[in-house]
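[agent] plan:
  1. take the single chain provided in the ticket
  2. run structure prediction with default settings
  3. attach structure tokens to the ticket
  4. add a short note for the reviewer (M.T.)
[agent] executing step 1
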Amino acid sequence: MTPPDDVRDVRELLGMRTHAATAIVIAFVATFAIVAWANRPAEGEWAVAGAWLVICIGAVALIRVPGDPLPAPWTAYLTVVGPIAIALILMVVPVPIIGLLQVWPLAAATAVYTYMCVRGRTLWAWVGMTVMIVTCIVWAEMTGQGAAHGLSISAMNLAPVAMATYFALTIRPAARDIYALRRQTLARAAAEAADLAILEERDRQLAHLDDLARPLLHRLTESEPLADNDHRACALLEAHLRDSLRAPGLAGPELTAAARTARSRGVEVVLLDDHGLDAAEETARERILAAASDAMEGAVNGTLTIRILPPRRDALATIVHTTPGGIARLEYDHDGHPVIVS
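[agent] step 2 finished; step 3 output follows
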């Protein structure tokens, strides 16, 4: 199915998906219902109802069926709308007919064929129109009225289809140009938005770095020697900056605070991100981040390594805690649940 905002759908350009277009189709259906009922023969109401239904389905399909050009199944249906509808009516009308309104499917099907041209099926519109005219000619000949009579009551409908053909040959190339320009505009807007997002992220990171590093840089410029607290602050800042580069997926405020607290206790925290979380479900991501935070809060010594694995691995993340007493390893599946405990 074509999505509602697909710029390739000619219905968007011609307003065929608007409320006004729907109102016109409703008026079309109602008008020919009145015409068909007012000019129904004494017998054969079933044929009139069938012809009206065939025409109505075609009219609705013209504004509702997506795709440009029209999909093949609906093209086939719309092509035979005229021949089927007029054949049903000609089976029950009196001979000779009293007025052209008795063969109302000629006008109704012509409207369908004009919009088929606009929807990119000009050749098949002419096929349907030709078969409908031939049907009238055969009926007139079989009823003793002469082929010329059948041609005279139907050939006048060629003019609207000819005009629609000219319109289609004019508007459809223009539509292709419009679609191309619109695609270029959307692509340019997306590129500009991406560039703006990169610049905003850069500014945000620079401001964050300034907030973190400026106090220490000022302290380094002072004449007094650095105290133990200053050395520890520098080490913590260096570790934080290293985390932001090596593990951007683990650089949230909560994990950053947990890592800083763990390092302050003397735990060596190593964070690695190979981007396995980038395409993970949000629930799995939340479980992994919560497990990483819990691991850092519970560590009191040793080395804690938290790694987000590359995509398409069997596991999504690992947490390894190395202490003098041994090594504890946790692996997490793609739902964020631990699968191996050692």
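[agent] step 4 note for reviewer: Residues 1-7 have pLDDT under 50 and may be disordered.
[agent] ticket updated
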